């Protein structure tokens, strides 16, 4: 693996390990949930494996999270930008609140389009 790829694999493995431990899961339990071998989970967490999207998706689902949340700390959004601030704020809110904000944004953007006509 190239050095930048090794670093990415290591960061992703650390993120997976952190989420697994937060949920009180062993590597064996995560392996059972995701259909992956326990040894493979260990290799992933140590950054020794270059993962496929399919494997990442299995792990994310097994941890009850999205790919975006799984990858967030690996390549975090710049929280100094307005978009970054919006994403951080919304990610901390319940899904119902997120849906409400989305509906509000669509209404505002639609209103802006109509105003321009």
Automatic annotation (TrEMBL):
<feature type="domain" description="HTH cro/C1-type">
    <location>
        <begin position="16"/>
        <end position="70"/>
    </location>
</feature>
<protein>
    <submittedName>
        <fullName>XRE family transcriptional regulator</fullName>
    </submittedName>
</protein>
<dbReference type="GO" id="GO:0003677">
    <property type="term" value="F:DNA binding"/>
</dbReference>
<dbReference type="InterPro" id="IPR050807">
    <property type="entry name" value="TransReg_Diox_bact_type"/>
</dbReference>
<dbReference type="GO" id="GO:0003700">
    <property type="term" value="F:DNA-binding transcription factor activity"/>
</dbReference>
<keyword id="KW-0805">Transcription regulation</keyword>
<dbReference type="InterPro" id="IPR001387">
    <property type="entry name" value="Cro/C1-type_HTH"/>
</dbReference>
<keyword id="KW-0238">DNA-binding</keyword>
<dbReference type="InterPro" id="IPR010982">
    <property type="entry name" value="Lambda_DNA-bd_dom_sf"/>
</dbReference>
<dbReference type="GO" id="GO:0005829">
    <property type="term" value="C:cytosol"/>
</dbReference>
<keyword id="KW-0804">Transcription</keyword>
<dbReference type="Pfam" id="PF01381">
    <property type="entry name" value="HTH_3"/>
</dbReference>
């Amino acid at each position: 693996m190239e050095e930048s790829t090794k670093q990415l694999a290591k960061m992703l493995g650390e993120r997976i390990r952190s989420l697994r431990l937060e949920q009180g899961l062993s590597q064996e339990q995560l392996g059972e949930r995701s259909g992956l071998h326990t040894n493979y989970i260990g290799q992933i967490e140590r950054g020794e494996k270059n993962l496929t999207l399919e494997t990442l998706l299995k792990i994310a689902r097994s941890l009850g999270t999205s790919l975006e949340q799984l990858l967030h700390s690996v390549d975090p959004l710049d929280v100094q930008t307005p978009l970054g601030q919006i994403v951080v704020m919304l990610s901390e809110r319940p899904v119902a609140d997120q849906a409400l904000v989305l509906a509000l944004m669509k209404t505002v953007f639609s209103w802006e389009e109509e105003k321009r006509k």
